[in-house]
From TrEMBL:
Superkingdom of the source species: Bacteria
SUPFAM superfamilies per record: Pentapeptide repeat-like
Organism encoding this protein: Bacillus solimangrovi
Lineage: Bacteria, Bacillati, Bacillota, Bacilli, Bacillales
Annotated protein name in UniProt: Quinolone resistance protein
Regions crossing the membrane: none
Length: 215
């Protein structure tokens, strides 16, 4: 049985000021805080080491943009489209993605802590070499996502589509995927030890091991 754990939600003030993406403060490193951005469309933006603190994005399209080394704390994305956006090597802390399109989103080399993905479409998203702790993926499509060489700790996949996900070189000890669906995933047999699966999934993994299951 997987151990229960708590994911801390973003701490968002009730008096956020309305802003737009170009209100980012550039005195030193780019910075935006205590703001709400709604009904905006940003494409092909490139800002390295952006810092976001206590910011809510709602109905925002942020497409094909690069925010390498981003630092996000207490941030909410709701009904946003972040397809093909680059958060490579970012620090993502107390962040919620709800009802978002995250196709091709790049978290490679990032550190995620206390993050929730709720009812998102994250097909082909990239988590290569990421450190993921106290994170919940719930009712989220992760088809073709890449979690190779990840460090997973207190991570929950609940009712997700994991078809064709790559878990190569990623230990799944204590990770519960029993409520998820997939026809095929890539995983090293030694990394599968301690993974929590359903009885139907167990038969599929037995086949990968060359076992013949008899009813």
């Amino acid at each position: 049985m997987t151990k229960r754990f708590k994911v801390d939600l973003p701490k968002i003030p009730s008096d956020l000021k309305q802003a737009n993406f170009h209100d980012i403060y550039y005195k030193e490193d780019p910075y935006l805080s205590n703001s709400m951005i709604t009904n905006a469309s940003i494409e092909n933006e490139q800002i390295d080491k952006l810092e976001l603190s206590k910011v809510t994005f709602k109905n925002v399209r942020l497409l094909g943009s690069s925010f390498r080394g981003i630092d996000m704390t207490d941030v909410v994305f709701e009904n946003c489209d972040l397809s093909n956006t680059d958060f490579c090597e970012g620090i993502i802390h107390r962040v919620t993605f709800k009802d978002c399109k995250l196709m091709g989103l790049n978290f490679s080399g990032a550190t995620l802590g206390n993050v929730t993905f709720d009812n998102c479409f994250a097909k082909m998203s990239d988590f290569i070499d990421a450190r993921i702790k106290q994170v919940i993926f719930e009712s989220t499509t992760l088809q073709g996502a890449n979690y190779s060489d990840c460090e997973l700790s207190k991570v929950k996949f609940e009712r997700c589509d994991l078809d064709d996900v790559d878990f190569s070189q990623t230990a799944l000890n204590g990770i519960d995927i029993s409520t998820c669906t997939f026809d095929r995933i890539t995983v090293d047999m030694e990394s599968l030890e301690g993974c929590i699966v359903s009885s139907e999934q167990a038969i599929g993994f037995a086949t990968l091991l060359g076992l013949k299951v008899k009813d």
